[in-house]
Here is the input.
Amino acid sequence: MKLKMNTPCKQDGLLEIEVNGQVRRVTDVLWRDSEKTKISNLNFVSFFGGGDSSWDSNRDTYTEYRNFWIA
Here is the structure.
């Protein structure tokens, strides 16, 4: 996923998502209307499994994130 903040008051922001090689892009996003609005946090959420013991894993699992930055 790629998100680019817009220039304040200009509809030039970007949202791009790639899943299984298919890319969807929106290029005219207005995220903010003030220079004072900045990115305040970055949150990752991962979910593995289900709601009962049949989803239990018999080994350690992990999630690897790469190629991300805030500029």
Strands lie at 2-4, 13-19, 22-29. The two ends are 15 Å apart (CA to CA). The CA atoms of residues 40 and 58 lie 38 Å apart.
